[in-house]
Design a protein that fits this description.
55% helix, 604 residues, rod-shaped, alpha+beta, 4-stranded antiparallel β-sheet
């Protein structure tokens, strides 16, 4: 018998119950409460009550004597643990009969008298009264029970604190979820879609574990509770983690082996899931070991790839360790880190919380890493462009100096010629004598004038054509496909963007430097309606062929061009022919126009 004193406000009473195992489920409350059944009950010595007989009902009996002198205290019996399959509380009436109140995770939530995620029953026990209460319980697994007696004030304080902490927990997870969905909307990267899937699965897992989902989301659908107790949530968590991890690694270092192992891990996990549900259910220890191995193999290879690339993401490693701990602790119900079963049950919540925070830190670190890479690439490109501009300016200065020197020489010679003409006019008398000399002088002047005219034409031609870059130097300016596409995109839309489908002028950046219309969602690649449309070989090599088409100082044969670019001779011929068609179409003048003007010619 439990004694309630004035100093009492909360009592843990799990081991104060008496129990009776009803293996036949044939006894009613009248028989159980009769004096003839008194000796059938035994004292509870362990919070689990029994470690077997999951298909049988357990009757629990408790006698409470209220010795308090305070008349304004109401007492409640609380059975913590949302996942009790079926529990019926028998409240004694004044006439000696009992009024049943049945609840459980297999019954609708609205049947409960006290709308709380735990099972709470009002005792209506006045001072100096003694009453005996009965509980009829059926479990879904070999769970640990936790029964408490609480005053109304203590019950409210305990409930508010519990709901407040759970509110903080779910609030932070929802904030992280919202932020990653925003990143996915802005960046269109599947990394920020897999992580929200993982967060949603953890929220679903938590809602099914603490009973808040049953209370607020599916109160009239108790079958959802059964779904939460199966392997479905755990499957979604592991699949989302594998996909998120693979994408996270690939953004740092391209490793095809990590992708292959991730695909194999997903297939093995799906086979294990089907086996557990429909074929042969493994022991939970074997199941946990296999699950951890499935996760550990791609994780280990991914971690090795990061270390090899000198990237040390400790938050990513510790987040994975938290995931392993959640899996082990959730499915190893025999592990008890604390004496309090409530703390044991809620232990996974701070671990999940830490896992989400650590994964978020990993994403922030990766965003910073990618931003630094982008800034470094822009800096290198800026240096290359500045160097190219500097070389161009130096060449222009040298050519201008040459033209100036030749012009001064011509002007000086013209002045000399004018002076000699004056001398010839004033010395007409000596004209006959000097006729032969004048003829020789005229021939000499004509030769010099011809040489000067050829020199001026050659300088003018060099200035117009400007000696260009070799393929190795050209590759420094356009090293890869991405650089070429970015240059082509800036060239194509340097004036203004208009959608080809609807003529709308607003867009969002798409992959490969394309643009996606905000009105009709049409995506346009930089190569569409250009000379590089439907190109079958690397675009940076096509850039160089087009660049050579505007240079008169280089005349490579198809064989030489094929050997330099490592392309088939027919491929080089076909693209050069395409360039020639483009020149004819737009009337291209190689003496006046740059090679890039041909890039935007559309032949189809």
């Amino acid at each position: 018998m439990i004694q309630l004193n004035d100093s009492s406000s909360q009592i843990h009473i799990t081991t104060h119950f008496d129990y009776f195992l009803d293996t036949t489920s044939k006894y009613a409350i009248d028989e159980i409460a009769s004096s003839n059944f008194e000796d059938h009950f035994r004292r509870v010595t362990d919070p689990h009550v029994l470690f077997d007989y999951l298909d049988s009902h357990i009757w629990l009996r408790i006698t409470i004597n209220n010795n308090q002198s305070i008349h304004n205290h109401s007492w409640y019996l609380e059975s913590w643990g949302f996942d009790i399959k079926n529990i019926t509380f028998y409240f004694p009436r004044p006439d000696g009969t009992f009024e049943p109140s049945t609840a459980g995770f297999e019954r609708p939530f609205n049947e409960r008298n006290v709308k709380h995620k735990n099972f709470n029953y009002f005792l209506d026990l006045r001072p100096s009264e003694t009453k005996t209460y009965f509980l009829k319980v059926k479990r879904s697994y070999n769970q640990e029970f936790s029964f408490h007696l609480r005053t109304n004030e203590k019950f409210l304080s305990h409930s508010l604190n519990e709901y407040f902490l759970l509110g903080i927990y779910y609030g932070v997870l929802v904030i992280i979820l919202t932020f990653n969905l925003y990143l996915f909307y802005r960046l269109r990267d599947t990394l920020y879609l897999y992580f929200p899937c993982l967060i949603i699965a953890c929220i679903w897992f938590s809602l099914g574990r603490d009973g808040l989902g049953f209370q607020y989301l599916w109160p009239n659908s108790p079958w959802v509770n059964k779904l939460n107790n199966e392997k479905v949530i755990e499957l979604i968590i592991i699949l989302a983690t594998l996909l998120f991890s693979e994408r996270y690694i690939q953004k740092y270092t391209k490793n095809k082996n990590v992708m292959k192992l991730t695909v194999w891990a997903i297939m093995l996990k799906l086979l294990l899931f089907v086996n557990q549900l429909f074929i042969f259910e493994l022991n939970y220890i074997h199941y946990i070991v296999i699950t951890i191995i499935i996760l550990l193999v791609p994780f280990s290879l991914g971690l090795y790839s990061l270390i090899k690339a000198k990237i040390y993401s400790w938050s990513y490693v510790f987040a994975y360790l938290c995931l392993f701990l959640v899996i082990v602790y959730s499915y190893s119900r025999s592990i008890q880190l604390f004496d309090n079963p409530v703390l044991n049950w809620y232990f996974v919540y701070p671990v999940i919380f830490a896992e989400m925070i650590l994964f978020s830190f990993s994403i922030f670190n990766q965003l910073k890493f990618l931003q630094n890479q982008f800034l470094e690439a822009n800096a290198e490109k800026t240096i290359a462009l500045e160097k190219n501009n500097q070389l161009t300016q130096e060449l222009n200065s040298k050519l201008k100096e040459k033209v100036r020197a030749r012009t001064e020489k011509i002007e000086k010679m013209a002045a000399d010629l004018a002076q000699k003409n004056v001398e010839l006019q004033t010395t007409n008398v000596k004209l006959q004598e000097l006729n032969s000399q004048v003829t020789q002088l005229n021939n000499y002047l004509q030769e010099n004038n011809e040489k000067l005219r050829s020199s001026v034409e050659e300088v003018t031609k060099d200035l117009a054509l400007m000696k260009g870059l070799g393929f190795d130097d050209f590759k420094n300016v356009f090293p890869d496909k991405d650089t070429c596409l970015k240059f082509l995109s800036e060239l194509k839309w340097k004036d203004k963007y208009h959608c080809k489908k609807c003529e709308y002028n607003k867009f969002t950046e798409g992959p490969n430097h394309g643009k996606r219309c905000r009105n009709c969602n049409y995506y346009e690649s930089p190569t569409v309606d250009t000379l590089f449309h439907k190109l079958k070989f690397p675009i940076e090599k096509a850039f160089y062929i087009l660049y050579l088409s505007n240079r008169k100082d280089v005349d490579l044969t198809l064989n030489e061009l094929s050997e330099i670019l490592e392309l088939r001779r027919e491929t080089c011929w076909a693209f050069k022919n395409k360039i020639s068609q483009a020149m004819e179409k737009v009337g291209h003048n190689t003496d006046l126009n740059g090679w890039e003007t041909l890039a935007l010619v559309h032949l189809e």
